[in-house]
């Protein structure tokens, strides 16, 4: 017979991983369940908004300091554009006044000198031409002026003063000079609604600081060490706004790329910050653009450090506050509660509940300790009373089983004594059958009370002893012609099923010893009890009890109809007891007589002492 044993199923590694993550999450959740964690969470929840507000104020102050650079750059740009516009308007006005006045070759030089003086010598050339564009009066740039300021590859003074000069084009033209952009003005002289000549003027777009009078607001532009004023040509060339103060106009690649994009897209205005430097782009005149570059001041550069220092102070104060409050809460609240919890845990492990009551802890916790002390004393006394009561009940049940066993043994002895005085063989056999049944019940009562806390029958040891008693009662042992084979697993059976099973085994074994091997016939009697895998999942825990012999056998189909002594009351008892344990029984007469019973053992009940201990443990778990 193949015995199928149920083992532990292999656990899936993914299942292990999910179980580990679930336990880790539960561990983190339990960490938040402590008093200390909740106190810290409350403190953080109350102080964090204040820290956020202080950080936002520090950030606002930082943004204001940083924004000063952009505001200053914008202001300088607008001021410069305003000065350029005003200066060009003055130039247009002066030239128009000259053209509308009575200017001639005789007074042109004096008029030009007056204009040069009024404009602070910003003109590189003032010239009067005839109607064909041939120069008649020329006022060149002053000898004290740097020649490079007025030099340009696009024109020369000698070519303009030559007799083969081209007819001038009225308007304003922008020339690229060596020190910056130059403006060429051509104003017609009208006489009786006809052009009688032209006034040609070339001047710098910027200003010469050395020529500006004291108190002029333009002297303040570009004097700050943190700013630059540049003029940009369409080809990307950069020049200083002040041609007599040339400076290396070189911008970082990132800023230069942005400015080139602004020039290409004909943008009128743009302000941006790159690498801590603010750039303002503004159209100055025609294709010429003004670029104001402003570096941050020391105060603005240190604004970020000040912001970081403020945030660090806020965080530091917050941490110090949390540490201080946490230390105070730990000393006056968390530690007393933890000591109380440890005292309760020690009491649950069997020690006495002895908290250390300190008057420095809060009054509520002291009252809680006293309440726990009174409750644990009462509960401990109640547990002792309950265990003593359960122990007494256990001893009473043990005594009852012992007395029932002794009484049954006495009954069996009386039946055996009475059977020895009966002369009729059939009557004597009936008395012995009853005796065997009574002895089986007596043996059963000795095994029903177990030390493992369960009121159950250990089938293996019980059947071994029961079979040994039945063999001895029939004057047989293991060395006789009829041999007994036991193959029994450890199975716990409730008392309600133990009695029918004991009587079934008694009937089958007694019948086999008396009738299966007539004469000197030898053979085997087999009793096997195994757990089997049920075909139906609802029948989990199914047990198979197989009893039989390889004797002469009986006809299974006539078993219920036979009137012989062997197949009469014994078969009726076996079938009745099988119905009591809800077993499916089959009888076979192949190679002897075999009984197969399949049933599900009922769950054993607890003893009184075990139930008392379980109730105590349940109360402790509910308190936990």
Short characterization:
This is histidine kinase. The protein is an alpha+beta fold and 624 residues long. The protein has helices at 13-32, 35-100, 108-118, 147-150, 157-160, 253-264, 298-301, 303-348, 363-420, 425-448, 459-473, 495-516, 569-580, 608-623, and strands at residues 123-129, 135-140, 171-176, 181-190, 195-204, 227-232, 238-240, 269-274, 277-285, 288-295, 454-455, 457-458, 482-488, 492-493, 523-531, 543-549, 584-588, 593-599, 605-606.
How would you describe what is shown here?
- Helix content is 50%, strand content 18%.
- The strands form five sheets. The protein has a five-stranded antiparallel beta sheet, covered by helices on one side. The chain has a five-stranded antiparallel beta sheet with strand order 7-6-10-9-8, sandwiched between helices.
- It has 624 residues and is of the alpha+beta class.
- α8 (303-348) runs parallel beside α9 (363-420).
- The protein contains 14 helices and 19 strands.
- Residues 1-11 and 556-567 have low confidence and may be disordered.
